[in-house]
Amino acid sequence: MNMVQQFDPAQVDYTKDLGTPGPQSDVKVTVLIDGMPVTVPEGTSVMRAAAMVGATIPKLCATDSLNAFGSCRLCLVEIEGRPGTPASCTTPCQEGMSVHTQTPRLDKLRKGVMELYISDHPLDCLTCPANGDCELQDMAGAVGLRDVRYGMAGENHLHKGKDESNPYFTFDASKCIVCSRCVRACSEVQGTFALTIAGRGFGSEVSPSEQQPFLESECVSCGACVQACPTATLQEKSVINLGVPSRKVKTTCAYCGVGCSFTAELRGDEVVRMVPDKQGGANAGHSCVKGRFAWGYAQHQDRVTTPMIRDSIQDEWRAVDWDEAITFAADRLKAIKRTHGVDAIGGITSSRCTNEEVYVVQKMVRAAFGTNNVDTCARVCHSPTGYGLKQTFGTSAGTQDFASVAHADMVMVIGANPTDAHPVFASRMKRRLREGADLIVIDPRSIDLVRSPHIHAEHHLQLMPGTNVAVLNAISHVVATEGLIDEAFVAERCNAASFRAWVDFIRLPENSPEQLAAVTGVDAESLRAAARAYATAGNAAIYYGLGVTEHSQGSTMVIAMANLAMATGNIGRLGVGVNPLRGQNNVQGSCDMGSFPHEFVGYRHVSDDTVRDQFSSIWGVMLREDPGMRIPNMLDSAVSGDFKGIYIQGEDIAQSDPNTQHVAEALTAMDCVIVQDLFLNETSQFAHVFLPGTSFLEKDGTFTNAERRINRVRPVMTSRTGLSEWEATCALSEAMGYPMPYDSAAQIMDEIAALTPTFAGVSFDLLDRLGSVQWPCNEQAPTGTPIMHKDGFVRGEGQFMTTPYVPTDERSTRKFPLLLTTGRILSQYNVGAQTRRTDNVVWHAEDVLDIHEADAEARGIGDGDWVEITSRAGQTRMRVRISDDIPAGVVYTTFHHPVSGTNVITTDNSDWATNCPEYKVTAVEIRPSSEQRA
Amino acid sequence: MNASADYKRQHLIKMANQIADNVPTREDVPAQVSQHMRQFWTPEMQQTLRDIASSTPDFLSEEVHSALRSL
User: Which residue from B2, B3, B22 is spatially nearest to B64, judged by alpha carbons?
Assistant: First the structure.
């Protein structure tokens, strides 16, 4: 036993498994553990208290990510004054309790228990993939087991076969000790309830769904069960193939905006597995199938690791060294500048790249190119969030941390599908919903949250696509006309004149649920019930996604949600707020880093003389005061012949942006298209220069997630390309005549901090010490700001704004009678460039079109048939799936596979304020097709 | 005018009218539209819209015309 001499709470190593979760309580109790006094929050288990002072008690069924279960009987202790030997995991500490963790009696009992376990376990430790990483093996050693008196010939489970159906892990039932950790992880952590223990007594066994293979079960492959398993029963195939890891690096996932912290475990330079970090502020030890398993694309054979150039897009690519590629690109851009002027070139930053990589791209465009023509892929997802929340609250970001949802009494999910697109946050949310929080879902589709194990949305407002603002106005109308406004909050925190104007507007009969029902398709009484439930819940939190922003009134809708939250006092404390679920890993960061054409880093307008002077001074160059072009404006100008050159960092606009034909026409019209990416993508078909990018496993920098959390991204392996992406950008900038001589990514962050009030306290050193921080992080908030607008809005007073509903121009007609809406699924990510190059394709090999049975029948379409989808913008083909997840009149698909051509049919309608494309509403007609792909 | 340049003009016309239809507070819409354009539109886009207002005034709403006068 490694016993400390005196208990010091600051010395507890929380990275270790303390056996049971730590309860939240202000009441403390003091107990004696083997004579050592330890003071812990009330409700702390004896096992955890013992682990905190280094008195590690043997255990098998306990782990601190799961509630105590008390089944393995290995963690027995003796307590003075109490009979018997209770399980320490299920015994809470009580004031004055004196516990003995090691006595001859306990030694004998534990050894006996282990003997029974081992009598039904293969004795193949030397060849077992978990050798050296097996808790059963550890416990056998801990209790001093030397032999098994019963022999190995009795009835046992050693003949049980392996389930290898899942592409990422195996289930070897012969090694299972039925501790239920996997079952509990699936229920408590993930919230899917795919696993159970089937049978009784000796016949008990872990069962995916109804004793199906894992791949065919309801399992979502989050891997929580694999992580929880104390033996090699559930084991990563990568560990089986490569062996137990020998070194670890902490880093951050590069998929969705949750931004999970991981420990990359390696052998040499080869990743063996990714283990979610228990200390991770965003994920608290959980992960999804993408983050934990789908990292193989980083080493995929399709990766291009050498720069390439070509004179025209009809030519073959020519591999060259970095110097030649950079010189070629710079010469072309300089020639365009000379001939067509500085505004004929520009750049696009990527939300997949680090803050530091994004920062240097926008700096290069502004300082080296000499224009503000820089935009980011956030243009096509959450630009309305930045606009709407800045107008109303004063900050272009969500209000809460993810942990806040645990304090919500009411969760309103609008235009988001967290279980697929933000699965790790969804698990947090589902836990709170299982605890009893109420749920309102506002979505045309019956997303998983509407009805899933132990969760049922009390209110599902199944609106027609394009009517979000009408629905929110109607909800606010109910709040404002039924006396549900939090008058005290509004009086204290919000601008009075704007509130009066808003109330006068929202009370108008035209905003009533009854008048809007015909437009929205939502029954007035259902809407009124939801409005009352939100306003009277106590703590009500709004979570929303691209189903809000990707509309012609995306910005108006963000403002409408902010109005509702302010009117009901649901801002500025735990459990409330307006929370965007950001699409990509660094959408928040790429916006923060000055990627918009009208703003410098920290959302400060380029026309602000004081701010511009500050940047000019530090950057040593005169900067433009006029806004630059957004992506759609750049593309329009390219088509008209005024815009000739573009640097595209990690974005595949030819696949992801709407109206593919228009994008292709624009790219074709340019003289210099530079693509920096991992793979040759759709956009690179139009490129003259390809600069190889680095995967997140090679990057050094930071990502900022949807809760404003800045996380470190550490290089796990050496760059496959020979240069960091920021080094390549700096080389191009220097070749353009503006050197950016940074020595490290940390130095770039130091410059960001020096120029950005909300980042003033951020440094790699701080992040290494604290793990992560949420901006603002500065003198007033040296360790960051989990909850925004606590004592007042950033803009001073909260600003109400009226939000008239304006129908989109994209309407269903006799020619195009159905409305297409788009989304994502769990196993794939965005345009699929990464996930299509992993085994995740086993779950989603192609995009399909979901159609309601009535619409299918009316067109003579059967499940699995190929159909032709025609919109005003174009035509494509897909296979259909008849689904009752969507109402009649609506069809739905994903855009993970380029061959599907989803964006061939989406239009160039966009949000009025930000030009975020209206992906969520496209009028289409569907016809049976005799052909397959277009 | 070629078709490509027309495409760009059509987008600007649509954007301008859409802004006028949607600016969230409906008091003094022209002032809000011109403020929005100053904040987010390049000078070249603003000039192109002025040209459109001169050459094809019917394509733009009255609020947009008013906004352009104060831009």
Answer: B22
Q: Which fold has domain A383-580?
A: Dimethylsulfoxide Reductase; domain 2 (3.40.228)
For residue A321, count other CB atoms closer than 10 A to its CB.
Answer: 11
Calculate how close chain B gets to A339, using CA atoms only, in Å: 17
A-B C-beta contacts closer than 8 Å: 73
The CATH code of the domain at A9-102 is: 3.10.20.740
Helix (H) or strand (E) holding A413: strand A410-414
Contact A757, A794 (CB under 8 A): no
Substitution target from B12, B15, B22, B41 for chain A, most A beta carbons within 10 A = B22
The string of DSSP letters for A26-66 reads S-EEEEEETTEEEEEETT-BHHHHHHHTT-PPP-SS--TTS
Q: Taking CB atoms and an 8 Å limit, are B21 and A637 in contact across chains?
A: no
Handedness of CA A891, A896, A900, A905 (dihedral sign): positive
Show me where the domains of chain A are located: 9-102, 151-299, 308-376+588-774, 383-580, 818-928
Looking at residue B3, its pLDDT comes to: 52
Closest CA to A821 of A743, A710, A917, A733: A917
Torsion angles phi and psi, residue A688, rounded to 5? -105, -25
Q: Strands A345-349, A374-376: parallel, antiparallel or unpaired by DSSP? A: parallel
A304, amino acid identity = V
CB atoms A343 and B44 under 8 Å: yes
A636 touches chain B (CB under 8 A): yes
- At A866, is the secondary structure helix, strand, or coil? strand
A587 pLDDT more than 90: yes
Domain A151-299: top CATH class: alpha beta
What dotted CATH number matches A818-928?
2.40.40.20
**Is the pLDDT assigned to residue A933 strictly greater than 70?**
no
Residues A485-513: pLDDT tens digits?
Answer: 999 999 999 999 999 999 999 999 999 99
The DSSP annotation for A881-919 comes to: EE-SSS-TTEEEEE---GGG-HHHHS-S-B-TTT--B-T
**The listed CATH number (3.40.50.920, 3.40.50.2000, 3.40.50.880, 3.40.50.740) that belongs to domain A308-376+588-774:** 3.40.50.740
Q: Which of A458, A456, A461 lies closest to A444 in space, CA to CA? A: A461
Average pLDDT of chain A?
Answer: 95
Looking at residue B5, its pLDDT comes to 60
Distance (Å) from the C-alpha of residue B46 to the closest C-alpha of chain A?
11
User: What ipTM does this complex have?
Assistant: 0.96
pLDDT-derived band at A2 (thresholds 50, 70, 90) equals very low
Interface test with A, best of B11, B13, B27, B33 (most A CBs within 10 A): B11
- Asked if B24 and A627 come within 8 Å (Cβ–Cβ), the reply is no
